[in-house]
Amino acid sequence: RENIRLVLCLDEAYLLGQDLLSIIHASEVAKHGHAFISTLIACRIVDWQNTLSFPLSGRLHDRIDMPAYNQDELFKIFKFRSELAFHKGVVTDEIINMVANIAASTQNARHGIEVLYLAGKAADRLNVRPITPDLIRRAKQEVYSELRSDVLYGLRDQEILVLAALTRELKAEKSSSTTIASVYERYQLICEEFGVKKQALPTFRKTIDALVSLGIIGKVVEGIGTGQRGRRARLTLMDIPVEVFDERVSEILQRRESMEGNFD
Predict the structure, then answer these.
(1) What is the mean pLDDT of residues 97-110?
(2) In 3D, which of 10, 78, 77 has the Cα closest to residue 48?
(3) Is residue 56 within 8 Å of 39, Cβ to Cβ?
(4) pLDDT value for 56
(5) Does 136 lie in the same domain as 41?
(6) pTM exceeding 0.85
(7) What is the mean pLDDT of the chain?
(8) CATH number for the domain including 211?
(9) Final residue in a domain of this structure, among 143, 165, 197
């Protein structure tokens, strides 16, 4: 009866999964074609590309791409957050700038907040004041549990080579996901680089599935494109920055290469 409009803003929208479509459809049940609900969806570009772009591609009227925070902006964000969360003098500007630099390199503010949180927990546990650069470095290594040393170092050589291929391909494409075929081409080049016998494509796919089952990488199935039938899988590092992944995988490759006969 009243001319009232509802604007619904959803941050981290990918967490809703298929329920997001139900929310979008809510405006379509209004009588006489009047839409009384407008929905704003906010998410990181990696989540859009990996999860939301295909199911929502025909249902969005406008898309606004926002630039990533730069280091100065991240410094202000972390400065504000640290003043809320920590006692005075526990987090210095030097530490905040260090965390801002980490987050700027991965273009992920959440990464920096997690680093600050873990460093603060460690400082409490060790009774250290103020937070030191070493605590920040340790926290940085702990943020992504999928990349714990005990997990990665326990992988077979072929699994490490596949991970190296995926990270290099994502960096080359400057994308958050890529096809299995593209990763396989990159994988063959890496095998030649290290003098390792390459896997046949069916075996390579099994290695991919093993890494997916471990939660180290993700596999997203999407439609091929407008006017085309069928679906295809794309590989992703989920929410883990490719720079972080590449750094750790490259370190393992270098260590194993230096150990004579260690590659399969």
Answers:
(1) 86
(2) 10
(3) no
(4) 64
(5) no
(6) no
(7) 81
(8) 1.10.10.10
(9) 143
Number of domains in the chain: 3
CA proximity to 245, closest of 120, 151, 181? 151
Position 127, amino acid: N
Token pair recorded at residue 173: 């494409």
- Tell me the pLDDT tens digit for each residue of 130-159: 999 999 988 887 776 556 655 677 888 999
Q: Specify the residue for token string 């290469």.
A: 257
- Which residues are within 8 A (CB) of 70 and not within 5 positions of it... i.e. 6 or more apart? 104
Q: How confident is residue 197, by pLDDT bands cut at 50, 70 and 90?
A: very high
Output the six-digit token pair for 52. 């939301």
Same domain, 154 and 254: yes
pLDDT value for 7:
86
Q: What is the CA radius of gyration of the chain?
A: 22
**114 and 166 together in one domain:** no
Quick one: 176 and 218 in the same domain? yes
**Ramachandran region of residue 12, left (φ > 0), alpha (ψ -120 to 50) or beta?**
left
